[in-house]
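Human:
Take a look at this sequence-structure pair and walk me through the tokens.
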Amino acid sequence: MNPVEVREAYEAVLTEAGPGVTVVAATKYVSAEEMGALADAGVAVVGENRAQDMQRKHELYGDRFRWHFIGALQSNKARVANELCELVHAVDTDSTARRLTVPWLLEVNLAGEASKSGVGEEEIAMYRERYPLLQGLMTMPPFTDDPEESRPMFRRLAQLARDHGLAQLSMGTSQDWRIAVEEGATLIRVGSTLFRA
């Protein structure tokens, strides 16, 4: 991985997304050894999908990044997130929410797909009332070759966040982050955009 190329890609996304958007580098497929290239490229925030991988990478590069957990967090791994993360993106169970001591986002399943994680829209109010550490909402639309197909879901999530007085919106990945930003994303999760194979 070339730090110069990563820096160019990262700075291009930062510039286009604008100052109100946190660019989270999704490092699921980045080895622990390669994380140094991201640090050298100036990447500020990284997002991990697995608690075990996060622990290993944090041991090597802890202070060089701000750490987000962007995968499905099992409640028995909440301790890892509490120790290492500033934000958890994809909470969708009461048992996980109860165990977190850091700010987190509620994953909402707007696609209505049984295979997708996330709570239904009608459950947001309960989480909002019960958990003061809930900062916002997150969603993951179905994969599509046309990013425009994600727009209605991003727009709906933004409306739900406004309805419930939540400030943060984690939506948009390498395939559709520009659409997400247009619809109000405050966090985008990008991987292949920054480090192409």
